UniProtKB/TrEMBL annotation:
Belongs to the class-I pyridoxal-phosphate-dependent aminotransferase family. The gene is YPO1410. Homodimer. GO terms for cellular component: cytosol. GO terms for biological process: L-phenylalanine biosynthetic process from chorismate via phenylpyruvate. CDD domains: AAT_like. Its cofactor is pyridoxal 5'-phosphate. Residues 297-324 form a coiled coil. It comes from Photobacterium profundum (strain SS9). GO terms for molecular function: identical protein binding; L-aspartate:2-oxoglutarate aminotransferase activity; L-tyrosine-2-oxoglutarate transaminase activity; pyridoxal phosphate binding. Keywords: Aminotransferase, Coiled coil, Pyridoxal phosphate, Transferase. This is Aminotransferase. Residues 27-392 form the Aminotransferase class I/classII large domain. Pfam families: Aminotran_1_2 (PF00155).
């Protein structure tokens, strides 16, 4: 029966990680997948996570199932992180949250929810976007359309083009936005632009959906929710997929959440009953460990403060690498202006390297970059910076 099956293409990001692992060159550098590396090139367990785990190990009394949406404490902690501790959306019970297996799991639940409950609407996705977005929505049978986002010449957001494209969306369509640290460009809308986007969604009756995977990696945990909170003020309904892979370093624990905000408590609760049915037929109920860690850290004042400092340390190290990268490229004789890298947020930048250059970097130098030219700045260290920049200088 299987003889008819043809091989699936390798994943553009995770497939590259496999290739990297199989590369035997000791000097190889992985700037593909978005995983934070410290100065020694390791991805450590956060100190607060270790502390929370020790407490959990001591206190845990059962491995019994969680409910379909996970625990209420986790849901509340997620909502407070998204909308602010005292948000009326929360006190009015307009938000409902289901824990999901990672940000991707949350997106997939959202996609099913959209398809089953909102019908044949289109999902508008920025061009470029995370390599998995289109696949996740297509897997639920949804049609996707793209809106312009990036101007390769100015290396900035092409905001007018984005608005012009979104003007073609129909009532009920979904607009997918990156909460902060746009993946892959690292360029986020500024405050006035968030307002304009939210106004457009209200005017055209579009449903905003946020993919929020890097909260804390741009400016700060609270500050990075600015765009989402502007939308929450203006739009009566919205969807959010959260991921705690990066800001808690809980990559392999698969901790995410799908949050929906309704016009009122009753509509939110009814819609959420459908979310629960969707989760039940995909994974039944979520894994407990990672969400328990996040809940504990966010609800304990000392751990929370320490965690925010850990996030700040990761953010600042990446920013330091951005500056060093631009300087080292100059030192290696690169004339092209790479200063835009310093203006971008989060783990990624769109380097402007083309496919041939990306291939040469891999083949000749063991430097792994996603085919689109996206580089994970989080994978740079003081030790790999010089060989990295020499490689780039050679292929430019
Ligand atoms: C990335 O964009 O590199 C990360 O979000 C990891 C992934 O799953 O692709």
């Amino acid at each position: 029966m299987f003889e008819k099956i043809t091989a699936a293409p390798a994943d553009p990001i995770l497939g590259l990680t496999d290739e990297f692992k199989n590369d035997t060159r000791p000097e190889k550098i992985n700037l593909g997948v978005g995983i934070y590396k410290d100065e020694s090139g390791n991805t450590p367990v956060l100190a607060t996570v270790k502390k929370a785990e020790a407490i959990l190990l001591e206190k845990e009394t059962t491995k019994s199932y969680l409910g379909i949406p996970g625990t209420a404490e986790y849901g509340l902690a997620v909502q407070q992180l998204l909308f602010g501790a005292n948000a009326t959306i929360i006190s009015d019970k307009r938000a409902q949250t289901a824990q999901a297996p990672g940000g991707t799991g949350a997106l997939r639940v959202a996609a099913e929810f959209i398809k089953r409950q909102l019908g044949d609407v289109k999902v508008w996705i920025s061009n470029p976007t995370w390599a998995n977005h289109i696949g996740v929505f297509a897997a639920a049978g949804l049609e996707t359309a793209s809106y312009s986002y990036y101007n390769a010449e100015t290396k900035d957001i092409d905001f007018d083009a984005a608005l012009a494209d979104l003007a073609n969306a129909n009532e009920g369509d979904i607009v997918l936005l990156h909460g902060c640290c746009h993946n892959p460009t690292g360029i986020d809308p500024v405050e006035a632009q968030w307002h304009q986007l939210a106004a457009l969604c209200v005017e055209k009756k579009l449903l905003p959906m946020f993919d929020f995977a890097y909260q804390g990696f741009a400016v700060g945990v609270e500050e990075d929710a600015q765009g989402l909170r502007i939308f929450a003020e203006q739009c009566s309904e919205l969807l959010v997929a959260s991921s705690f892979s990066k800001n808690f370093g809980l990559y392999n624990e698969r901790v995410g959440a799908f949050t929906l905000v309704g016009k009122n408590a009753e509509q939110a609760a009814t819609a959420f009953s459908q979310v629960k049915s969707i989760a039940r037929v995909i994974y039944s109920n979520p894994p407990a460990h990672g969400a328990a860690i996040v809940t504990l850290i966010l609800n304990d004042e000392a751990l929370r403060n320490e965690w925010e400092q850990e996030v700040a340390d990761m953010r600042n190290r990446i920013q330091e690498m951005r500056t060093l990268f631009v300087q080292t490229l100059k030192d290696c004789g690169v004339d092209a202006d790479f200063s835009f890298i310093e203006r971008q947020n989060g783990m990624f930048s769109f380097s402007g390297l083309n496919k041939d250059q990306v291939n040469r970097l891999k083949e000749e130098f063991g430097i792994y970059i996603v085919g689109s030219g996206r580089i994970s700045v989080a994978g740079m260290t003081k030790n790999n910076m010089l060989p990295l920049c020499k490689g780039i200088a050679a292929v430019l």
